[in-house]
């Protein structure tokens, strides 16, 4: 990064410090999105940071270069974190909800139209990959992997996590590593890196190993140190800004020329001070009794796969093999003081010929939806597109955070799509329509995206369009009532299976999920897994608001049902509806108990409910149990409503030995 006039800025959580040199703004490759040019020139930002179990800072805009206009020309951002707090209590919370670091980066990047493409975590090692929304259809074959190397491969405090994907037809892999520490562990670092390269394998016909990809970004807390030189000389070189005298003693620079496993990896010049080790909250190097020697432990490297030996016509290499990488920036950020490491960022300009000029799914929609009957979506699929019956089209608000952060959805039709694929041609006659109740009311900009369950990615998107639907008094009152109940009852907890085949769980409400795998809704409900749901494979989005029908409910005594009268009437109407035959199907008597079983209609609900755990609803019954005990003492067992249409009478208490 070029030097600028000395200036100071107040660090986050520390005193005034010298401002780190800023990276030059990359020149724009094209005024149009990369997908529209014949040669793709995407800019990729890579960030690595050992956060030292610290809480996220309040602001990361300078780290991501969001406050300088540089991100306007950046197409993708890969963020590698190490030593994220992974204690038992934190891991349990992060298993249910998105971790705070991921939430922070999604919150900061979504206003700039960056969408979380993929994420992977191994204890304290996290990798996040973001991209501009209009690039999503050209990011396919997304896979993740992780390798533990701590404690002989049994512990994940050290190791590597990776995200691999196809970018415009070229295979790219991001590898975030945390290697063993200390000066004398150089050989161990070499062995661990070789183990990671050997263990991580991906599915598919091409690029099964990490080094088989066309482009590999390797970054993280690699823990390489400075040999031979004592701490006094190292600090003198830093203070005198003669960092080049330290380069030849850097272990990674030495290893790149001697280790075969590092052959072909490139790195920009280390024109920034060593990023380890600092006193937390300051920009002073380690002043503790250990007085560790400063070192460039946090690094970003890349490797281009050598071109194939085959020649095209005329003795020239095929154009699709063209690939070059230019590093536009490589710098640290001294203003962040929450950890004993400083974060490091690099911006790359990647140039390769485009193999893909059309998305797998093209979506056509009107410029504005001002009436519900205009909510018609037409789409066509490319030849060879591997569709699934679980594919769906999501309606996203502009600024959404991840592919499952939708406002509404509709299942993609399967019958016409299968006929289209059988004939090996693409038709524009496939269409679906959003129901009126599924559409957001009011004015706003939205985007439609076709989510492919096979590739776990968005295969097609539209440009932003306007939705302007009036807010009716009836609709607003019902919406307000549902919203108020949502505010009053915040006892929401939903568990999502690790590998869900569907969108994240949650009811179709106008608020958006803040997590790719979790959304809030009323009731403590653990929903059944897909193999327990029944035979329906195409749930109807319109039934997303229906009452779950196989969830046992604990009812209050008869004398306390007054304030539940409204809810009972609603349930009664549902039971008396044409679908009541499937609502209450069988009533069995077992050990003096009546048990109501429902059909598999739970599957006809929001797709975000698929693949979950068995159902359980907890209700407040402290007072009910107290009064029930008084009735039992008097020899009578309180009434229990088994359905909304029947009211069993009260009877004597059950015999001893029989559970109530």
Mean pLDDT: 73
Q: What is the level 1 CATH name of the domain at 43-308 and 319-352?
A: Alpha Beta
* CATH fourth-tier homologous superfamily of the domain at 43-308 and 319-352: Endonuclease/exonuclease/phosphatase
- CATH architectural name of the domain at 43-308 and 319-352: 4-Layer Sandwich
Helix share of residues?
A: 10-25%
Number of helices: 11
Alpha carbon gap, first and last residue = 75 Å
Structural class: alpha+beta
Structural commentary:
By secondary structure, this protein is α+β, with helices and mostly antiparallel strands. The chain is 16% helix and 26% strand. The strands form 7 sheets. Strands 3, 4, 5, 6, 7, 13 and 14 form a 7-stranded mixed sheet that branches. Strands 16, 18, 19, 21, 22 and 23 form a 6-stranded mixed sheet that branches. Strands 8-9-10-11-12 form a 5-stranded mixed sheet, with helices on one face. It starts with 7 loop residues before the first strand and ends in an 8-residue tail after the last strand. Residues 1-38, 311-320, 474-549, 551-605, 607-621 and 635-660 have low confidence and may be disordered.
Q: How would you summarize this macromolecular structure in one to three sentences?
A:
With 660 residues, the protein is of the alpha+beta class.
Give me some keywords for this one.
disordered C terminus, 26% strand, disordered N terminus, 16% helix, 660 residues, Deoxyribonuclease I, Chain A, 6-stranded mixed sheet, 7-stranded mixed sheet, Immunoglobulin-like, alpha+beta
